[in-house]
Write a structure and sequence with these properties.
The chain is α/β, with parallel strands linked by helices. Helices cover about 40% and strands about 20% of the residues. The chain has 11 helices and 11 strands. Strands 1, 2, 3, 4, 5, 6, 7 and 11 form an 8-stranded mixed beta sheet that branches. A 3-stranded antiparallel beta sheet has the order 8-10-9. α7 runs antiparallel to α11 and α9 packs across α11.
């Protein structure tokens, strides 16, 4: 992530508590995105991989299991606290080839041609200077190395429409504060591809698949977890008057329940997958 002071606090204590509380169910919800990105990136034994904005550990952990023997994954994030969680998760799976590294994606602490592959799941949207970050990433990739990203598609899809879009209908104003982090920055077709080309990548690819996005629990849990970890929406949430929260909470939960199947919530997620190669 960027160290831009206008960006949100990705490692704040509330988010850390929520990450730990919901780690199993969050991992279950995101596993299909992770699997799709890992498949897209094509890790092989012996590869040196850099995972940007790695947070609590994915896809770094999944990639680490694919590059054995001999390979490793450097998991980079601005938050040392989130990386501590990531390292614990890797160790719990007996993966000793995940190396946590606190750092800024715009100023990578690695030498030229250090990695065979780079990845990021839901991180690239938050780089404050996307072309500068991608140029520095290109620097640390070897010739022929790939950069592979997963980003959010449009806000008009079930998970977002049943949560923060409901709040927005009530409070009005901007759903995201101007000049701050935007999860949907690359939802427009070709926008992430354009950034990769501007940074000098070649053989650029982009697609917009829809994958399962399923919460193994209740609608109330979905909403609690979403409010805790979706940092970019906090300014909007703060505009909700205290007296309005009970009714708004009931409305959001009712919307989420529309996607309930037995004991789980099945949203589906439209994402953007994009990659480029260092010539």
């Amino acid at each position: 992530m960027s160290e831009d002071p206008k960006q949100p606090e990705w490692g704040n204590s509330y988010r850390l508590v929520a990450s730990e509380k919901w780690k199993a169910k969050s991992a279950a919800m995101g596993k299909h995105v992770t699997q799709r990105l890992v498949q897209f990136s094509g890790p092989r034994p012996g590869m040196r991989i850099l995972d940007l904005a790695s947070g609590t550990g994915e896809p770094a952990i999944s990639l680490a299991s694919q590059v054995l023997p001999g390979g490793f994954v450097a998991a980079l994030d601005i938050s040392a606290d989130l990386l501590t969680i990531a390292q614990g998760r890797a160790r719990s799976r007996s993966l000793m080839n995940v190396a946590p590294c606190q750092g800024d994606a715009h100023r990578l602490p690695f030498g030229e041609s250090s990695f065979d592959l780079a990845t990021s799941r839901f991180g690239v949207m938050f780089f404050s200077d996307i072309v500068a970050a991608l140029k520095d990433l290109r620097r640390v990739l070897r010739s022929g190395g790939r950069a592979c990203f997963a980003a959010w598609g449009p806000i008009e899809q079930p998970y977002w429409s049943s949560t923060f879009a409901v709040v927005h209908r009530h409070v009005g104003g901007p759903i995201l504060a101007a000049g701050r982090a935007n999860p949907f920055r690359f939802s427009a077709q070709g926008s992430l591809s354009g950034a990769l080309r501007a940074a000098g990548f070649v053989e650029v690819e982009e697609s917009s698949p829809t994958v399962p996005w399923t919460w193994p629990g209740s609608a109330e849990e979905v909403w609690e977890q979403a409010r805790a970890v979706s940092v970019p929406f906090q300014p909007m949430l703060e505009r909700v008057a205290e007296k309005d929260w009970p009714a708004l909470h009931r409305e959001v939960v009712a919307e989420i329940c529309k996607y309930q199947v037995a004991d789980r919530i099945e949203f589906g997620a439209t994402i953007v997958l994009a990659s480029g190669v260092k010539a």
